[in-house]
Design brief:
The protein is mostly helical. The protein folds into two domains: 50 residues; 234 residues, Glycerol uptake facilitator protein, CATH 1.20.1080.10. The protein is built from nine helices and no strands. The N and C termini lie far apart (70 Å).
């Protein structure tokens, strides 16, 4: 009996001796956690970790995607096919309807975007692709492939419509943008820049709803931005700047609309005219769309939207 009591006493001593250690360990962890929380709160108070633009230029696409890895998956071919087909339909839409049927344009762009957005995101515009590249939403190699696909798609749309007109016995006349003039050059640049900035802003905002709201919301937002950009361009160019048939808001479409002159008084003048056309209808739209993307991202960061 004595031995039993002594064992019980020993075991009770052991248990009593181990409990304080657990309490002590817990208290140390608690102190560490409280210390860390105090440090974070102090830093936030000082504004060190309260920067709304933190991660603004972070890479949003696959970090491993490059020219060596992108072709390992067959999905890239589906994406390229989506850009070719989508831009082809967009070119046909613009040739048949022009820019003066905004309701029909909105319906058509919505349908085209819904049809191909799951394949490639339905950029359908080199300016949009450059905006996606600038904000690091797509890799450089994917962006280049998309731009080539968009130009090819616009060319196919032009060829198809030319074939239909030729089969109908009509004289095939390629669509053409009014030739640039030095006196009105800044007006053309302004219209292209404003229109593509609107396109870039709406397209960037649509990315937020791509997975959460479904195809229709995504497509409607993209089509709404496209229609609004066209309306701005039509009203401003026709009513205020006294211009007509002078904008495309899409470098791939613009190239098909004969922006590059083929006749000039000399080689130097020809190169100069080609440079002005490239600036107005290719470089400026890309800059405008990129600005629209950055403006949308900045608004998102400042609002705290996740």
């Amino acid at each position: 009996m004595a031995n039993t009591k002594s064992k019980k006493t020993t075991s009770s001593k052991k248990s009593s001796s181990t409990k304080p250690k657990a309490v002590a360990t817990k208290s140390v962890k608690t102190v560490k956690a409280e210390t860390a929380a105090a440090v974070v709160a102090k830093n936030d108070k000082g504004g060190k970790n309260n920067n709304p633009f933190k991660g603004f230029f972070a890479k949003k696409c696959d970090e491993k995607e490059n020219i060596l890895t992108i072709f390992k998956s067959p999905r890239i071919w589906g994406a390229i096919a989506g850009e070719v087909i989508g831009t082809m339909f967009l070119m046909i839409l613009m040739i048949t309807l022009g820019v003066y049927q905004p309701l029909y344009i909105m319906i058509g762009v919505t349908a085209i975007t819904m049809a191909v957005y799951a394949f490639s995101g339905a950029h359908l515009n080199p300016a949009i692709t450059v905006g996606m590249m600038a904000t690091r939403r797509v890799s450089a190699i994917r962006g280049v492939l998309y731009i080539v696909a968009e130009v090819v798609g616009a060319w196919l749309g032009l060829v198809i419509m030319g074939a239909f007109r030729s089969a109908g016995g009509d004289i095939v006349e390629l669509p053409a943008i009014t030739a640039l003039e030095t006196e009105t050059l800044w007006k053309n640049i302004f219209v292209e820049f404003l229109g593509t900035a609107v396109l870039g802003y709406f397209f960037c905002r649509a990315q937020t709803y791509r997975t959460s709201r479904g195809a229709f919301t995504y497509s409607a937002l993209v089509a709404g931005g496209f229609t609004l950009a066209v309306l701005f361009a039509v009203v401003i160019s026709s009513n205020y700047l006294r211009l007509s048939d002078n904008f495309a808001l899409n470098p791939a479409v613009a190239i098909m609309e004969q922006i590059f002159p083929s006749v000039a008084n000399g080689f130097g003048e020809l190169i100069g005219d080609i440079a002005l056309a490239s600036l107005t209808y290719i470089l400026v739209p890309m800059l405008g769309a990129t600005l629209g993307f950055f403006a949308a991202d900045a608004s998102k960061k400042l609002s705290g939207e996740e």
